[in-house]
Request: fold
Amino acid sequence: MTNAINFDSLWASVTSEPNHRSPYSVHGPDHWRRVERNACILAARTGANVNVVRLFALFHDSRRENDGHDPDHGRRGADFAASVRGKWFDLPDDDFALLQYACIWHTDGHHHKDPTIGTCWDADRLDLGRVGMIPDPAYMSTPFGAEIAAHGVIQPWLHLADSVLGCAATHHLK
Ligand SMILES: [Fe+2]
Ligand SMILES: [Fe+2]
Reply:
């Protein structure tokens, strides 16, 4: 049995690291929050592990070194998560393996059948609007991700995140 994750304090710890991106970088904490929102919306229907997808949102781009070409940033994010596991948060081994895989390979444009890994990647790709790209259903791993991408905006499904995140955590959803 693992203790519940205190996401507020975990976010404070990760974003206070000197290496984090500026808040409004296209790959910075502002993006991480939208990925978390997207992941929670998707998880309501995909059955993804909510702790894993929320941790993915926080760590997947946490070790980017720039907003351009940085092909190893997924691996560095996974290593960073491993380095603070047991100190800032904990997760059972099987779930942690999913988190590691999702972080390491999110940079390569793959699809995945596992609902948790697929939800992580779809949540990230559904935020492509921030860089002027329209999410394409063909690049989604989950049927729900493809449905949202085909619709063009995620706003009609925002309410689904509330049940997962709770009202106190919805400040970043609008
Ligand atoms: Fe990334
Ligand atoms: Fe990302």
Remarks:
- The two ends are 34 Å apart (CA to CA).
- The chain has a mean pLDDT of 90.
- The pocket of fe (ii) ion (ligand 1) is lined by residues 60-61, 73, 106-107 (CB under 6 Å).
